[in-house]
Amino acid sequence: MKNFIFFNPARILFGKGQLAGLADEIKRLDCKRILVVSGRGSVKRIGLYDKVISILKDMGLIFFELEGIHPNPRLADVRRGIDICKRNNVDFILAVGGGSVIDAGKAIAAGAVCQRDIWDYFAKRYEIEGALPLGDILTLAATGTEMNGNAVITNWETKDKLSIGSSHLIPKFSILDPEYTYSVPKDQTVYGIVDIMAHVFEAYFSPTPNTPLHDRIAEGIMTTLVENAYKVLDNLKDYDARANIMWCGSMALNGLIGTGKEEDWATHDIEHEVSAIYDIPHGGGLAIIFPNWMKYVLDEGVDKFVQYAQRVWNVQDNGQGDREIALEGIQRTREFFDHLGAPSTLKDYGIGHENIDVMAQKAVRFGPIGGYKKLYKEDVANILKMCL
Ligand code: NZQ
Ligand code: ZN
């Protein structure tokens, strides 16, 4: 294991009725002028938005509203939010929604106080110098953004989807009430489950040896996710299934299972290039790419794939050999995604080979990607061709 510092100050208010704690959380931060960020209407339809606004009004706070954040959130909306903050001396961001809304909120929080143009921090990788404090009410289990310092934003003019990461962007608090995820439709629920599984893969398939605790936590998240995925698809309002999936989402990407390890993240980098051009859901893209990435890198380290197959999918050793066991684990992953109804090829989104070269080039813009196996432009193109 490598040396590490683990620091995660996000306060999590988890469970039914935790919105009741919102006023106290805001009071603790002593903020007075709030920007409320939300998406394209789901939080209004479930009655959450009105409740939040009435809490802010009861507190006598001044607030501004930025609605309409798109999935795969856009730089133009982030700029709108930064402008509102600067013109009105906003001192706190409250994001109400899924990962896209929270990520947009984080980018706004950074852009409101940082010296340079916000896109420079994504495209030129400058270090984030600070950010307004941000709290959120999460309505979709997927990204882990509620408990990490990352934000992913798309510049639609240049077709670049890039991320920033900083401890300044870790939410001061996140309210996670699984009941607010009951209304997430089946397809988005599935994309969320795939995304969570993918975050575990990115940390689990690592070249760093001897991390048995990390591995077992990761395997616990994966098996919990699989069990509860079937339950939630049977009943989208199964509280325990929604709650377990939601907590899996936070645990998968709050830094814990990646501590002291070299992580991979190649599949995410590749997926971001696909959604930057085609605007597909992040989890849908991951469901297509991950099993193909697994096959592509398998021979770099078969043992970890054997462990994965046996511990997560109960693949039995019947003397078929390690490589066959590993391949069976990959096949079981594909079948799980298929069973959920996730897409399996780029064709499912009408995507052909036309932009493979561009996507492969952009994926390696900062150098080769991946930790399990270093991937160069040609490797990325090969994986994308396997996805066609
Ligand atoms: O626009 P609204 O009306 O809010 O509807 C959203 C959207 O259409 C809807 N939704 C959210 N909560 C709902 C709901 N519908 C009904 N009931 C609810 N309770 O779901 C749709 C998708 O929402 P979105 O926020 O885009 O989904 P998700 O949470 O999966 O976020 C995806 C974005 O996060 C990035 C992805 O790349 C993508 O841009 N990621 C962020 C990460 C991070 N910050 O750490 C890591 C991830 O790997 C990922 O890259
Ligand atoms: Zn993801």
Can you describe what's shown?
Strands 1-8-5-4-2-3 form a six-stranded parallel sheet, sandwiched between helices. A two-stranded antiparallel sheet has the order 6-7. The chain is built from 15 helices and eight strands. It has two domains: 171 residues, 3-Layer(aba) Sandwich (Rossmann fold); 201 residues, Dehydroquinate synthase-like - alpha domain (Dehydroquinate synthase-like, alpha domain). The protein has 388 residues and is an alpha/beta fold. Helix content is 49%, strand content 11%. The site of zinc ion has 6 residues, from helix 7.
Could you state the order of secondary-structure elements as H and E?
Answer: EHEHHEHEHHEEEEHHHHHHHHH
Number of strands: 8
> Sheet bearing the most strands, described?
6 strands, parallel
Q: Residue ranges: pLDDT <50 for 5 or more in a row?
A: none
Question: Which oligomeric state applies?
Answer: single chain
| Portion in helices | 40-55%
Share in β-strands: 5-15%
CATH architecture of the largest domain: Up-down Bundle
